[in-house]
Amino acid sequence: MRRSGPTDLRIDGRHRRTMRINRLSLTDWRNYETADVVFEPGANVLAGSNGQGKTNLVEAIGFLTTLGSHRVSGDAALVRAGAESAVIRATVSSADREVLAEVLINKVGANRAQLNRSAVRPREITRNVSSVLFAPEDLALVRGEPSARRRFVDELLVQRTPRLAGTVSDYEKALRQRNGLLRGSRGMVDTESLAVWDERLVATGTDLLDARTELLAALEPLVAEQYAVVAGADQRVAIEAQRTIDEEAAEGTTVERFTAALARVRRREIERGITLVGPHRDEVLLTVNGLPARGYASHGESWSLALALRLGAVELLRHALQTGDPIVILDDVFAELDEWRRIRLADRVARYEQVIVTAAVEADIPPALAGRVTRIRAGHVVDGEPEAAGPAAGDPADSLG
């Protein structure tokens, strides 16, 4: 296991600084009244029986990265029963400095955030903490609905280029306003108002579509490489954006195609009261040997492809981010894999700066990831407990909580 050392590494001949989480403190998060866990560089294992709270810990780290949960769509379920808010507090070594990142999650009302005790917009937290989390739910990336794949792509877009969070948000706002106008038209739409929202939808949607296309082009070879490593198979893996604006128009700019697509479906949109073309309706097609993975891939192939998508995201981010490798999180993954795939996966991720693994059975963890072990029982750290929180961790009463 790697120990603390210089804060930079070399990737492809270039010096890169490292990023890792040093300490995580929780208040009223999920099943934790309080929790305080210390992490080291290299491999870290969170061990405990199912249902004790291991996933809740790594979910908190993931929340700092995306401001959302990989398990639920809303924030209310993240707050411990009986509490009105939860606090995630983490000290993170990012680039050449250590930062204290804090988020207050409210059941009702907007969330709040701080960096080094100064109030910031929550989105600023994600510029200082980056992680890639793989969990059993990720099988939905291959076998689930298109919305899961769109969400994966858009979250990766924002991690790679944080300013695109505004693009995603602006498109969603324009879509809501346009849908509201269509629903309220009762077949007699206000054409002038619709033209205004058409223009805004096309402008924001074009930026999002072009960003997705560029991202998938960069991601595809990385996913194919990771699939070969994890699955050990000589199979062709491809990723293709299937855009609704391209269904009948194969030429022209994105703006021209989007505008033409809206005109083509105008009558149906007014009848149904909903926007029928655009990024929110697109598909990300995953194929193995030319066949759609959804519906054709075996269980083992689906698992390998889901893993490859996340590992491809890690490779993309470690070359794109100035802060260094993202934190790699494997939540209850090894129980789902045969021994051969466990070893191949462990050998692949062990090279990253920091890896956090959860496991119900410690024997499932391959030797390459045998690092610091923290055991969890019923929402408590029961051994390997850190010392009492010092000034860096702070007290909830001192800040957001």
Automatic annotation (TrEMBL):
Compartments (UniProt record): Cytoplasm
One example GO MF annotation: ATP binding
Top-level taxon in the UniProt lineage: Bacteria
Keywords: ATP-binding, Cytoplasm, DNA damage, DNA repair, DNA replication, DNA-binding, Nucleotide-binding, SOS response
Keyword Nucleotide-binding included in the entry's annotation: yes
Residues of the RecF/RecN/SMC N-terminal domain: 21-360
GO cellular component, one term: cytoplasm
GO biological process per UniProt: DNA replication; DNA synthesis involved in DNA repair; double-strand break repair; SOS response
Binding site for ATP: G48, S49, N50, G51, Q52, G53, K54, T55
InterPro entries with a match to the protein in the record: DNA-binding_RecF, DNA-binding_RecF_CS, P-loop_NTPase, RecF/RecN/SMC_N, RecF_2
Family classification: Belongs to the RecF family.
Function description: The RecF protein is involved in DNA metabolism; it is required for DNA replication and normal SOS inducibility. RecF binds preferentially to single-stranded, linear DNA. It also seems to bind ATP.
Cited PANTHER family: DNA REPLICATION AND REPAIR PROTEIN RECF
Protein name: DNA replication and repair protein RecF
Organism: Amnibacterium kyonggiense
GN (gene name): recF
